[in-house]
Amino acid sequence: MALLHIDFKSSVLNKSSSIYAITPEPTKIDSWNDLQVLYLLHGMGDDHTKWIRRTNVEQYVKKYNLVVISAQFGKSFYSNMVYGENYWDFLTSELPYLVDRMFPISDKREDRFVAGLSMGGFGAFKWALNYPKMFSNAASFSGVLSLQDFFEIRSKKVLEGLNINNSVERFRSLANSVIGNKGKIAGTNNDLIELLKQNSKSNLPNFYQFCGDKDPILQFNKKFKECAENMPQLNYQYFESSGKHDWVFWNKCLLKYINLLPLKEVR
Description:
The chain is an alpha/beta fold and 267 residues long. 35% of the residues lie in helices and 20% in strands.
C-alpha cells in the first residue's frame, strides 16, 4: 500500500487542510475509475492521522482495490458550525469532489463506503442518511447517535469515560459553537433518528452499528437501534460486544466492518 499525505487549501473552509489516503501501489492499479473508496471519519479531539496511528487499517486493506480517505474536521460534529467553519459543506461537497479527481475511483454507489467512530460515527450515519445514494454501506463505531442527549451530558465521570477531559462548562461551550446557545437539533439534518424515519421508504445504504457494553453512551446507541429494528425494510445489523470507548475496541470494529464489505481484491 501507499500512504499519501496531501495538504491543500480548502475553498469551503477558507484555510489549509490535510488528507491522508491509503491506496494500492500505483503499479497494482489496472484501470481508471476502478478503485473503491472508504471514508473514515475521526472522533472529537482527533484528526486525520489517528486512523493510521491507532489502528491496523493499512494491513486490513492491503489486498483490496480500495482507497481509504481520512480528512480533518476539528470538533465540528460534521456540521456547518454556528461559531466555526462549514464542515458539513466540506464533507459532502468539496471533499468527495477533490477525492474523485485525485484518484481513479469508481462512480458506482456499490463501490463507496463510510465509517466513523464516536463523533465520526455520528458523521458517517448523518452523511449516509442525508445522501442515501452516496454510499452502499455505512458504519458507526460507538457513535454519538443522539446528538441532543450527548450535548445534554452534565456528568464529569461520563465525559472522562468518553476521553473528553473538558469541564462540564467547556463541554457546554462546545455545543454552543456547533449549534448555538438556543440551537435546535430535533427535525434537522443532525437528528439521525428522525432522518431514519423520514427515509423509511428510501433505498438506504446498509447500516452497521457497533458499540461496547461498557461504553458511557451505550444508551444513545440503543435508542437508534430500537428505531432501526422497527424498520424491516432496512438492511441493518447491530453488534454489541465487550468494550469501552477506546481504540482497542474501534480497531476490532474496523476489521469486522472491512470483512463485511463487498471489497474487490487487487489483481
